[in-house]
Amino acid sequence: MSGAVEAKLAELGLTLPEVVPPLAAYQPAIQSGVYVFTSGQLPMVEGKLPVTGKVGAEVTPEEAKELARTCGLNALAAVKSIAGDLDRVARVVKVVGFVASAPDFTGQPAVINGTSELLGEVLGDKGVHARSAVGVAVLPLDAPVEVEIQVELTEA
Description:
By secondary structure, the protein is of the alpha+beta class. The protein has three helices and five strands; from the N terminus they run H-E-E-H-E-H-E-E. A five-stranded mixed β-sheet has the order 1-2-5-3-4, covered by helices on one side. A hairpin with a 2-residue loop joins strand 1 (29-32) and strand 2. Helix 2 (61-83) crosses helix 3 (108-123). The chain starts with a helix and ends with a strand. 40% of the residues are buried.
């Protein structure tokens, strides 16, 4: 099932990927009431991390922002796996982004803008959200970025 949101993705030249399989004992997303919570989404592309390392060291902020965009796309795929149709997204409530950062790197908000801007492009006003952008020492698989989102759904 696809609708206006997936048409917008296509217009932007984007394809919704397959849901990234869990790396451990969790689900990619769960629903509680009208909310869908995604697990942390790594910037996996066809089952692989395109880049690894710390932002501000091995990974540039620009590369990391693009990786955060990929995380957002993976998060939308996880939401769709629960909702069935992304047109059911009433709004994105919260985005939490983690950036594996070199000790002196302080540009985490600009990196996580990759996710935030994607959600705005794809969902318009429904993509406006609250957010945290956190610098961390290391992420799973040495990923530079990890993002989780919470969305509110309309009734089916």
